[in-house]
Design a protein that fits this description.
heterodimer, A: alpha/beta, Rossmann fold, 2 domains, 7-stranded mixed sheet, 5-stranded mixed sheet, 39% helix, globular, B: alpha/beta, 5-stranded parallel sheet, 12 helices, 7 strands, 42% helix, 10% strand
């Protein structure tokens, strides 16, 4: 049965069903029993499963991430929660040197089925160290998968797939999506990792977007539909491994590509998607590829500056109009 | 305080044999490294044999262990297949990591030895994670965690000491204090000499003679009993010395890092010359062990030399698990 619930509730439901269905799954992270850090996305989970399986932790990101990696090496299916991507940098040694390298380095004898949930939590004048979206750092690394759900349906299905996957998966959700509503089946289901989703079909221009930017691109596309502009939107959903076919097929159809990713520009998701399109669909492009990203600049605190820093639908609309004259 | 533990004849034989296996494998690896038959950087364990052997003999095959880049000794002591080890050091397709790991990354899932790491202290957190899995599953297994005293300088060491103690994890932290990290002596890196003082507020912490296999065996056995009983982790600092330089077959005397006198003073404390062990063994038994070990070494090297190199077509295999 399908019903409409929020993105945050979809995440919570995935946690609940994963914990319910397998004793091998447990959760560790800063603030997992605190309602502040994880919004309403884990409300009630601690009360239901208790401190044995929902382990709020001392402030030791690297050590505790490594602990979940070790538990995964022993065959468990832990979920590590980083309430902000900014804090996750402290764990990069373990994520890269232990988790991502193990299966390859040990000749396929040490897989690491850990899920590392990290949350983009920005705006509200939080400043440079409480605002980051560092997905590009992780898509650079061999041996891990990186997913970024934009809809409640994918938020649940991709969390389930991440935990069931036999590899380390970085699952990135966005606080700005928590109140978005959508159809979510009640039963547990998986969304395939590595498959993009054509969220809107169109013929004039392709937008490839991630996470919150998908929802903003949709708003822009709907507003421009009245003017006869027909936009195709591809929700990447997984940024590693990336669905090259979906990008190429769409670019071949529309001949125009705009990539939207709410993170720093240099060597980011948008740069990678642009490279794929120009390597594999160059002759179909009718004009240069455009990227809409954050500038190569740290997040400011002042809301006046935040307003110009972040990307909303109006900026996407403006860019589309510039590309379709 | 020295242990009064009496060990059986079988134990004496086993301890001696495993220490000799490590010694002879490492000497042979040192030779092929010096001859440039192999390139992979080898961090040799000669001089520290009593620690891996005493500790691994004090637990069961099913118990877990984590080691690090100076890890040939732990692999042998835990019961890993020595043919696969030497083949890995030769970077052959038959190696325990199919030639992808080399000397610093050995693994033997058959005996629950997890993969060794070449990041100082990189194994500490995953080892605590395996210990946490034992606690959550109540499987009564313990995890041996080997690391050098240099690893206690990393931040993650403090993080894990805190957490392992807080959650009473069945973790046995075995600190091999050989007084050196690469080219730096302990006194150049830390204002204290005794590593066990760092963990004393958190867990039972001891400093023992790491060259005395019986001493190591006995302390680890006690720690394992406590861990299985739910009483949490133990820290055991084993004082020792590596005969070779940081990496490779040389002694680092020429580089001014060590003196011949220092090395000789530790050779006098050779773990293989343990009187309590040797006094229980007949000369003929020792000779039999030597022959047996020589044969094992010979066969493992023959296996490695005769094995094929990895097929270049396999370069991108195993990036992800299925």
């Amino acid at each position: 049965m399908v019903r409409e619930i929020t993105y945050a509730d979809a995440i919570k439901e995935a946690f609940d069903q994963l914990l319910e269905s397998s004793p091998d799954t447990f959760v560790m992270g800063i603030g997992v029993k605190s309602p502040w850090y994880v919004g309403n996305s884990m409300k009630g989970i601690f009360d239901k499963y208790g401190e044995e399986r929902i382990i709020d932790i001392p402030i030791s990101e690297n050590g505790i991430t490594g602990i979940t990696i070790g538990a995964a090496m022993a065959g468990m299916r832990p979920i590590m929660v980083h309430p902000r991507m900014d804090f996750m940098y402290l764990a990069m040694d373990q994520i890269i040197n232990s988790a991502s390298a193990a299966n390859y380095m040990f000749g396929g004898k040490s897989n690491v089925p850990v899920t590392i949930r990290s949350i983009i939590n920005r705006g509200g004048e939080q400043g440079a160290q409480h605002s980051q979206a560092s997905q590009a750092m992780y898509m650079h690394i061999p041996g891990i998968k990186v997913v970024m759900p934009s809809t409640p349906y994918d938020a649940k299905g991709l969390l389930v797939s991440s935990v069931k996957d036999n590899n380390p998966v970085i699952y990135i959700d966005d606080r700005w999506l928590y109140n978005e509503k959508g159809d979510v089946p009640e039963e547990m289901y998986e969304v395939p990792i590595g498959k993009a989703n054509i969220i809107r079909e169109g013929k004039d221009l392709t937008i490839v977007a991630t996470s919150y930017m998908v929802s903003q691109a949709l708003v822009a596309a709907e507003e421009l539909a009245d003017k006869g502009i027909d936009i195709e939107i591809i929700d990447l959903r997984t940024i590693k491994p990336i669905d090259e076919d979906a990008i190429i097929t769409s670019v071949k159809k529309t001949g125009k590509l705009l990539v939207v990713d709410a993170a720093w520009r240099h060597a980011g998701v948008a740069a990678e998607v642009s490279a794929i399109a120009s390597e594999k669909a160059f002759s179909y492009l009718k004009q240069p590829i455009h990227r809409l990203t954050l500038p190569d600049c740290h997040a400011p605190a002042s809301s006046v500056l935040e307003e110009v820093y972040y990307i909303r639908s109006d900026k996407i609309k403006e860019k589309i109009q510039e590309m379709i004259k | 305080m020295k242990t009064n533990l009496k060990i059986s004849k079988e134990q004496s034989l086993a301890f001696y044999k495993d220490m000799l296996r490590i010694r002879k494998f490492e000497e042979a690896i040192s030779d092929v490294s010096e001859d440039k038959e192999i390139k992979t950087p080898c961090h040799l364990y000669i001089g520290q044999e009593a620690i891996a052997v005493g500790a691994c003999r004090a637990v069961e095959k099913e118990d877990y262990a984590f080691a690090f880049y100076r890890g040939h000794g732990h692999y042998i002591a835990k019961g890993g297949d020595t043919k696969k080890m030497v083949a890995e050091i030769f970077c052959k397709s038959t190696g325990c990591c199919k030639g992808r790991g080399g000397s610093m990354h050995l693994i033997s899932p058959e005996v629950n030895l997890f993969g060794s790491t070449a990041i100082v202290a990189g194994q500490i957190a995953p080892a605590a994670g395996v210990a946490l899995s034992s606690k959550l599953r109540d499987d009564k297994k313990v995890t041996l965690l080997f690391f050098g005293e240099g690893a206690t300088e990393e931040g993650v060491f403090s993080e894990i000491v805190n957490f392992a103690s807080l959650k009473k994890l069945p973790l046995i932290m075995i600190c091999e204090n050989n007084n050196a990290a690469a080219h730096m002596k302990l006194s150049e890196r830390q204002p204290i000499d005794d590593m066990y003082l760092k963990t004393e507020p958190y867990m039972p912490s001891f400093q023992i003679d790491g060259n005395d296999v019986i001493e190591v065996y006995s302390k680890v056995k006690e720690a394992a009993e406590r861990a299985r009983d739910g009483q949490g982790p133990t820290f055991i600092e084993c004082m020792t010395f590596r005969w070779k330089g940081h990496v490779g077959p040389l002694l680092d005397i020429d580089k001014g890092l060590r003196t011949a006198q220092e090395i000789d003073s530790w050779k006098a404390k050779d773990p293989l010359l343990n009187k309590d062990i040797l006094s229980g063994l007949l000369d003929s038994e020792i000779r039999d062990i030597e022959l047996e070990v020589d044969d094992e070494v010979k066969q493992a090297f023959r296996f490695a030399r005769e094995s094929s190199k990895p097929d270049p077509a396999t370069l991108l295999d195993d990036i992800y698990a299925d």
